Structure prediction request, 256 residues.
Amino acid sequence: MRLGALKLKVQLFCGDEPAMGPGKADLLEAIAREGSISAAGRALGMSYRRTWLLVDGMNRCFSEKLVETTAGGGSARGARVTEPGWTVLAAYRELEAALEQASAGDALARLTGLLRAAPQPPAGDTGL
Amino acid sequence: MRLGALKLKVQLFCGDEPAMGPGKADLLEAIAREGSISAAGRALGMSYRRTWLLVDGMNRCFSEKLVETTAGGGSARGARVTEPGWTVLAAYRELEAALEQASAGDALARLTGLLRAAPQPPAGDTGL
Prediction:
């Protein structure tokens, strides 16, 4: 999540496995919009294999599947976000919003107040 | 910053260049502790070149240098965190603490409540 000079990355882990994060949240929204895993992946510029692995990862990390595929061969194959999937997505976006709000304080103002508008060019390896 | 199942990454950018983040904050603390860039890098398990690039990146992104090297050849060469460096480090840690506090709410409870203790094993590529 980019907020001016600030970038916040919010991830949820199940053991060592990333269960939810910015990419997976966007993917849930794309699956809801597109109605299939492959179309959602295409819309986000990801390979089918990568998209499928993200969906499989999410589904294995939560007590219920977040994405359900509908039976049917060929082009009729589809996918939908389940009720627990919507719950997780809404809670994740709510957490992001709470963090966005909490970031807008005095500490961030002090940090950005000392930031240059653009970095100075690299000096080379001979000194600082 | 890892908080149970939650991982928060807080980064500050100067244009496209990362100006401050978890690695750079740890590096500032290590430089203050060790008194030199090379010793700080060793303590964090980084190459001298990578350590130097992180310091140079920070110094180019802020209006004043965060790390200053002291003149002197050979083993006498040292580094210290400047006053603006301490200001930036303190504000970054304060921002992290504010975000940690803001994360501990209802949305996170709903997310973790649906998380498994450990991920289910991968199902293979034949289905979800």
Remarks:
- The radius of gyration of chain A is 19 Å.
